[in-house]
Amino acid sequence: MVAPQHEKNGRTAVLAAARDLFDSHGFHQTSMAELAASAHVSVGQMYRLFKGKEDIIEALVIDNADQWCAEMNALRRQLDGGELSIDQTFEALLRHTVDSEDEALAFDILAEGFRNQAVSKTIGDMCARFRNIIRYFASAANPRLTGQDLDAAEEVVLACLFGLGHRSLSRPRLDAACTAARSAEMILAALRSLAPAPDPRSS
């Protein structure tokens, strides 16, 4: 039986190795034996910790989501506490996305989500967690947003986060800081310009 702390250390080592190897070599080009060697664990221990590479991908998605949600919730607490304005909150949110170093890995994870139902569900669950916080930020930017307008704001901001997190191949003209600042300005201008849709029952 693997001791709990030893198992935790082994999982941490395997996930760190997977993050590095999947990012540099690709998910399908990396073998379990390579992962075990890079993580300094035996292949047998690898299979005690994870059923296979798909299980590792799911664990990476959950790990990323936990970290990202913790950071987003920290931004929310700073916003609620008056330490950040909503403008600063959106800029910090986008800066985190633009500064992501796991772009190639993120592409591989998304591609695997289309092939693997379990990975797809994990990604969907992760996005559901993000949506709640994004919706809160959109409401803070424009408290008049309700219904479909708020739903659409949530979709647009989430799409921007996904898009800006995969920008390097498009040969961007702006650096990360400028991209985050200007994108935040544009998103906020769009959110603030929206007025509640007229109630059809009043006509």
Automatic annotation (TrEMBL):
<dbReference type="Pfam" id="PF00440">
    <property type="entry name" value="TetR_N"/>
</dbReference>
<keyword id="KW-0238">DNA-binding</keyword>
<dbReference type="InterPro" id="IPR050109">
    <property type="entry name" value="HTH-type_TetR-like_transc_reg"/>
</dbReference>
<keyword id="KW-0805">Transcription regulation</keyword>
<dbReference type="InterPro" id="IPR009057">
    <property type="entry name" value="Homeodomain-like_sf"/>
</dbReference>
<dbReference type="InterPro" id="IPR001647">
    <property type="entry name" value="HTH_TetR"/>
</dbReference>
<protein>
    <submittedName>
        <fullName>TetR/AcrR family transcriptional regulator</fullName>
    </submittedName>
</protein>
<keyword id="KW-0804">Transcription</keyword>
<feature type="domain" description="HTH tetR-type">
    <location>
        <begin position="8"/>
        <end position="68"/>
    </location>
</feature>
<feature type="DNA-binding region" description="H-T-H motif">
    <location>
        <begin position="31"/>
        <end position="50"/>
    </location>
</feature>
